[in-house]
Write a structure and sequence with these properties.
The protein is about 75% helix and about 5% strand. By secondary structure, it is mainly alpha-helical. The protein has one domain (about 5-145, about 180-475). The chain has a two-stranded antiparallel ribbon. Helix 12 (about 245-255) runs antiparallel to helix 14 (about 275-310), helix 18 (about 395-420) runs antiparallel to helix 19 (about 425-445) and helix 19 runs antiparallel to helix 20 (about 450-475). The chain is globular, with a radius of gyration of 25 Å.
Length: about 475
């Protein structure tokens, strides 16, 4: 079998292997829920506090099923459907911080200069955090890191004059890319869980915060659904960078609007206006233009490289292999959009039902993400080698730590910006961030943009800003 074809399809094999590893947690969890809900467990098990918390949730009692959650939002005629298209962090922060936002807005309106300074602070924090996070993503997944190792000098051992003496040791180097996407997901989730856990404990010390966030807690097994889709979407996000450029990955996120709409219809029965579908079609059209030119540039680059390095048949083989890699990367991005859309919609369902805080969601989802990814890495024997590879290279270790730190800092700026200025300001800042990220990646990593591809990018971001303006006007008419 062609080795190139094997390498191109390895991501699919790795994904299937990860899913099998996750089943070590998923299957026992599903079995426990089934047995307890149907009264097939011994009473000592079903009456255990942790089992009740896992199966029934914080309120105890008779259990909440997926159907109950689904029926809770069917028929919800909330006119502000556009809010459903926002990331889950926006929805939750708006729901949980609306009163705080009104108080802050009223207070800051008396101090225009300070409010402008605070907005600049949030803008700078979001841009620095997520732009750095994006650049580090691309660097870690595409850079060949240098590793050093020591070996015995064979010449010293065989030389007659060195008989009976200790051989000298010589140092050698090799270059290798870090390819374990799942380990990066685990590192990010550990830090996010620690932050959420610490913040929750700080808030719980205040009686005011305890009463404010005293809503019901969902059954813990409900977190597993969005936790699984969350780690799969993150894995696809890292894995895609092995096959497509960072600008392609960033721009594909703008197309999330269509799968989010479809997934929210499937899970929550939501309906959307005609103009929202037009926005989605326009974004998809701009993305298609960009991908078409990006694919052409990719094939031309591969053919040129092969022409300089090998014989007549090699350019065709290289171009074919490059095409398989590119389309494989697009398939990974489609999976990313699908998993990510499910995550946001399922989390929204839980928020609508239980009115929990964002920190509770962060802690619950990240806890099960750590459990799933660490189990998978241990089962596959990848945790030790990946950890050793990271700690043996100072540059890689620094990049991984900075990646997690910028990701966590970005989340803090997300919550603070939304609670202070609202979702509209946040979405505008993050849309600008996507455009700047593409530009910055092209400058740092020398990605080329064809004129038609540039037109596609302009269409995408023009549509996004038009959508933001339309949403603001729609809210103003109410």
């Amino acid at each position: 079998m062609d080795q190139t074809l094997v390498d191109d399809n390895y991501w699919f094999i790795q994904l299937a292997t990860n899913l099998l590893s996750y089943s070590l947690i998923l299957l026992p969890s599903a079995l426990l829920v089934y047995l307890v809900n149907n009264g097939l467990c011994h009473r000592s098990v079903s009456d255990n506090y942790l089992v009740k918390l896992f199966v029934y949730g914080g309120s105890g009692g008779g259990g909440t099923t997926n159907k109950d959650i689904h029926n809770n939002i069917i028929g919800d005629n909330d006119d502000d459907d556009n809010d459903r298209l926002l990331p889950v962090t926006i929805d939750t922060a708006v729901n949980n911080g609306r009163q705080q936002q009104n108080k802050l807005t009223k207070w800051w309106s008396q101090f225009g200069g300070r409010r402008a300074t605070l907005m600049l602070y949030c803008f700078a924090g979001l841009q620095v955090s997520y732009l750095s996070w994006g650049l580090l993503q691309e660097k870690i997944m595409t850079t060949e890191y240098t590793f050093h190792y020591n070996i015995l000098n064979v010449d010293d051992i065989n030389h007659p004059s060195n008989s009976g003496l200790n051989p000298t040791i010589k140092s050698s180097t090799y270059h290798q890319k870090f390819t374990n996407s799942q380990f990066l997901v685990l590192v990010n989730r550990v830090l996010a869980f620690i932050i959420a856990f610490v913040a929750l404990n700080i808030r719980q010390r205040s009686p005011t915060n305890r009463s404010r966030y005293g809503g019901g807690q969902p059954p813990l097994h409900q977190y597993i659904y969005c936790s699984l889709s969350n780690i799969l979407s993150s894995w696809c996000q890292y894995e895609a960078l092995k096959f497509v450029s960072f600008p392609t990955q960033v721009l594909s996120k703008a197309c999330k609007i269509m799968p989010v709409m479809l997934m929210s219809q499937l899970i929550g029965g939501k309906k959307y206006r005609t103009v929202e579908y037009l926005f989605a079609i326009s974004i998809s059209f701009g993305m298609t233009l960009f991908l078409w030119t990006d694919r052409s540039a990719n094939a031309s680059h591969a053919a040129a490289a092969a022409h300089h390095s090998s014989a007549d048949a090699a350019p065709l083989a290289s171009e074919s292999g490059s095409g398989q890699q590119y389309y494989g990367g697009l398939l990974i991005l489609i999976l990313y959009l699908t998993f990510d859309s499910f995550t946001s919609n399922w989390q929204t369902v839980l928020f609508d039902k239980y009115k929990m805080s964002t920190l509770h969601m962060m802690a619950g989802v990240n806890f099960f993400s750590i459990l799933l990814t660490s189990t998978s890495l241990l089962e596959q024997g990848d945790l030790g080698p990946a950890f050793q590879m990271v700690v043996n290279n100072t540059s890689l270790l620094t990049d991984c730590l900075l990646l997690s730190m910028f990701s966590a800092a970005g989340q803090l700026f997300v919550f603070y910006t939304i609670s202070t200025f609202g979702a509209l300001v946040f979405v505008t800042i993050m849309t600008l961030r996507q455009a700047i990220a593409i530009l910055l990646s092209c400058i740092v990593y020398n990605h080329s943009l064809a004129p038609v591809g540039l037109i596609g990018i302009i269409i995408v971001f023009a549509t996004l800003f038009t959508q933001i303006y339309w949403k603001s006007k729609s809210k103003g008419k109410r």
